[in-house]
Amino acid sequence: MSDELELLRKWDADAAPLTGPARDRARYRLLNAMAHADQRTGAGPSRRRALRLAAAAVVATAATGTAVLIGTDGSGEGGAPGTSTPRMENAAATVLNGAAAWERGREKEPVAPRDDQFIYSKRVIKETEQKTGEVKTYTDEMWDSVDVSKPSLTMELGREMWEEPAGKGGGVWPPRKWSELKKLPQDPAKLISAIISSGGSDDRSISDLAEFDRFQAYFLLGELLKNPVLPQGLRPAAYEALALVPGVRTIPGVKDSDGRTGVGVAYTGRGSYGGAYLIFDPASYEFLGFRNERTSASGKKKYIQLSHVVDWGIVDRVKQRP
C-alpha cells in the first residue's frame, strides 16, 4: 500500500510538493475518480483520462478526502526493480490462494451494518525514520459512515481528518453499504471484471488487460481488502482475484508491525511503488498487515511504515467504540 501521490509526481514532477495535510485531503478524490470514472452520462473522458485529470486537479487544488494506492518497484528476491518472473508470480499466487483458504476456514457471516451506522476500525502504525532509525508508534481510529450520508472521522499518524458526506449519487470505494457489497461477484475473474468496469462487465480475459487496467484491478482489490467487514466469501474471493492479476510477486523475510517475519506480496507493473506490499504468514498464509514507505513534505526524510488492524466493529455514532 503506498502514497498515490508518488504517482502524481510522475505526472507533474515540476509541481510544488504538497504539505502533509494537503496530501491527506487529496487522496479520496483521486481514488473516487479512479473507481467511478465510468459512472457518467453522455460523452466524457475515458477512465484513464479521468484519472489523469483528477491527478492534475489534486496537484493544483489539494482536493479533499482519504485513500491509499498499492504498488512496489519489485525490489527484493532478486531480479531487476519493477520486473517479475513466472516463478515469482507463481509464488505470489500460492501465497494469495493460501490466504483465501485460511480465510474460508475461519470466516463466518458477519452482522450486516445498517446504512445509518458507522464502521469503526483501529490500526497500529509503527513508523521508522530510515536515516536515524527513530521509531514512532501511532494508534489511528476511523469512523466511516456506511451510506456516506454523514461526516466520517478518520486519523492518519495521529491527525484527525473529517470526510464530508458524499453528494447526491456519490459513493466511495470500497463501498460500505451492505447491499452494494453483496452485489460484488465472488468468482475471482468476475470480481476483477466488475471492479475495472465500475460495476458493469468487461469481456476481456485478464491476460488481455492493458497494464493500466491490471494496476487498477490490483489497486481496487487491495482497497477492498482494507474494509474490515465484508460479506462471507468476498475477502477470500478478493485474495484469489489478486492472484490472477499479472505482475504480482513475493518478497521474503519482511517484518510486520508486531515483529513477526512474513512474506510480502507486491505489484510490479505500471504505477508500482517501492517498498509497499501486503504481508502474510509464510506457513499459514494468514494476513498480517501492510508495509509502506513515505517521504516527508520537505522531501528530506523517508519513513518505513508497518501497520495492522487491531480492532473493528459497527457503531451508531462517531467516537463510539464497540
- The structural class is alpha+beta
Whole-number average pLDDT? 77
Flag low-confidence runs.
Answer: 1-29, 31-82
Shape estimate? globular
- How many helices? The count is 8
What string gives the helices and strands in order? HHHHEEEEHHHHEEEEE
Helix content: 25-40%
Percent strand equals 15-25%
- End-to-end separation in angstroms reads 27 Å
Radius of gyration: 18 Å
- Main sheet specs: 7 strands, antiparallel
Count the beta strands: 9
Q: List the strand order in the largest sheet.
A: 2-1-9-8-7-6-5
Characterize the quaternary organization of these chains.
single chain
List the helices and strands and how they pair.
Elements: H1 5-11, H2 20-36, H3 47-61, H4 86-104, E1 118-129, E2 135-145, E3 152-156, E4 159-163, H5 178-183, H6 188-196, H7 211-226, H8 234-244, E5 248-255, E6 261-267, E7 277-280, E8 287-295, E9 302-315
Antiparallel strand pairs: 1-2, 1-9, 3-4, 5-6, 6-7, 7-8, 8-9
Helix pairs in contact: 2-3, 4-8, 6-7, 6-8, 7-8
How would you characterize this protein structure?
This protein is α+β, with helices and mostly antiparallel strands and 322 residues long. It has 8 helices and 9 strands. The chain has helices at residues 5-11, 20-36, 47-61, 86-104, 178-183, 188-196, 211-226, 234-244, and strands at 118-129, 135-145, 152-156, 159-163, 248-255, 261-267, 277-280, 287-295, 302-315. The strands form 2 sheets. Strands 2-1-9-8-7-6-5 form a 7-stranded antiparallel beta sheet, covered by helices on one side. It has a two-stranded antiparallel sheet with strand order 3-4. Helix 7 packs antiparallel against helix 8 (234-244). The longest helix is centred in the first third of the chain and has 19 residues, at 86-104.
